[in-house]
Amino acid sequence: MSSGTASETAGTRSPGTHQARVAELRAQLARLPSGAPVRLAKRTSNLFRGRSGPGAGGLDVSGFTHVLEVDPVGRTAEVEGMVTYEQLVDATLPHGLMPLVVPQLKSITLGGAVTGLGIESTSFRCGMPHESVLEMEILTGDGEIVLARPDNEHQALFHGFPNSYGTLGYVLRLRIELEPVLPYVRLRHLRYTEAEAYFAALAAACDTRVHGGEPVDFVDGTVFGPGELYLTLGTFTEHAPHTSDYTHLDIYYRSIPRRAVDHLTVRDYLWRWDTDWFWCSAALGVQHRPVRRLLGRRLLRSDVYWKVAAFERRHGITRALRGLLGRPRREPVIQDIEVPVRRAAEFLDFFQREIGISPVWVCPIRQRGTAHWPLYQLDPATLYVNFGFWSSVQLAPGEPEGSRNRLIERTVTELEGHKSLYSDSYYDEDTFWRLYNGAAYRELKKRYDPAGRLLDLYQKCVGAR
Predict the structure, then answer these.
(1) Does a structural domain hold residue 124?
(2) What does DSSP say about strands 58-59 and 133-140: parallel, antiparallel, or unpaired?
(3) CA spacing 20 to 30 A to 53: which of 67, 93, 204, 365?
(4) Residues 206, 238: Cα–Cα separation, whole Å
(5) How far apart are CA 383 and CA 367, in angstroms?
(6) Phi, psi dihedral angles at 264 (to 5 degrees)
(7) Is residue 209 part of a domain?
(8) What contacts 299, CB < 8 A, 6 or more positions away?
(9) Distance separating alpha carbons of residues 333 and 355, to the nearest angstrom
(10) 61 part of a folded domain
(11) What is the spatial distance between Cα 145 and Cα 142, in angstroms, rounded to a whole number?
């Protein structure tokens, strides 16, 4: 493991470079007409709901992409808000460190993961990305730069920022905790045929962090259909008898039923889902070997697929073709939800019966500490199970679009669960604010965006759909 301090990834750290970027951003904001709406001029996103273009008022944050410092001794990193997890992992792994939670897709930014939500297979012990943040420098809606920490005068903003999706401000810089890694991850893919036994085994692995006498550092799972549920347990290891490669011709999720034991380098483990966007690359026709040979590793990436999907959403080509061919309408169902583990089998039974999408990703999550995160409240004593499903379903004749998503929303609420807001939401306004703590949000909005220059959370996540 390296010692000392690693400096800004662009080269030797120059005093004032980050401050200069901040000053320019504030100058951009000052040039906007008084009261004009404010938004980021971002070319890409990992959201799956409608986005208006940057238009007038788009702030250029393209320069905020620097890993400012990696401290291997203190196990912290200081990064700008538009740094991707791919950049950060590349900066920390040479020091034998990684972020406590690394969301699955390389192009997710740290600012995006904190103002939104992120999870991965360390979430059963490390919670969500915002729980390892030590401080945030935030540009608020009223144009101020504030340093938010859990114990200073901006602690309410610090705790209220997760799940605010840029409606309270934008992260310009963060300092986060890191944890040590070993070079390899040993995977065990365990098959179950009954949901109750599956979730009981998942809960036991999360609670004891041991299975079959081996330590458990990572937990997630894949449900291929009724009676075919796989629990994947990962363990850090110094040595590996072999390593698999799922960055080009071979496909990770297809290996799960075929290999009881597997080994990956730690970097390849962290990005095991990115090459094929979990399994969603199949819809783009790139899971055929000749196509993969032609595309090469450079194009087999989630951010490439996202651009294709975003183009389709903007222009509706597939929808138009289906209409011309007289095919039934389909409703996109792209969601991540979580329910308490004791309700997980119940949710899966509902989902397989009423929605029928497969595969489904499963990821356990437990809040790391006892801090109160008001806009996305989890019980610190409860283990939750996240279900990720990203596809579409055929609508019956006369069935309105949105009906399946509304059904999922109602069921998740009935099962004491929560739903992430990165995709389409259909809640009425009263229900939305009840579920996402409208009272706490309005207090933060009044203090940090009193002129309402940023959209409010309901407008952005539901009203703008």
Answers:
(1) yes
(2) unpaired
(3) 67
(4) 22
(5) 8
(6) -135, 150
(7) no
(8) none
(9) 9
(10) yes
(11) 9
The CATH number linked to 173 is 3.30.465.10
Structural domain count, the chain: 1
Tell me if 219 is assigned to some domain: no
Amino acid (1-letter code) at residue 198: Y
Residue type, 12: T
Cα(273)–Cα(172) distance, rounded to whole angstroms? 28
- What's the rounded Cα separation, in Å, for the pair 300 and 4? 35
Q: How many CA within 13 A on the CB side of residue 142?
A: 10
Question: What does each of the 465 residues of the chain score in pLDDT, given as a tens digit?
Answer: 333 454 555 433 444 599 999 999 988 888 888 777 887 776 655 555 554 444 444 888 889 999 999 999 999 999 999 999 999 999 999 999 999 999 999 999 999 999 999 999 999 999 999 999 999 999 998 889 999 999 999 999 999 999 999 999 999 999 999 999 999 999 999 999 999 999 999 999 999 999 999 999 999 999 999 999 999 999 999 999 999 999 999 999 999 999 999 999 999 999 999 999 999 999 999 999 999 999 999 999 999 998 888 777 777 766 666 566 667 889 999 999 999 999 999 999 999 999 999 999 999 999 999 999 999 999 999 999 999 999 999 999 989 999 999 999 999 999 999 999 999 999 999 999 999 999 999 999 999 999 999 999 999 999 855
| Owner of token pair 């969603």 | 280
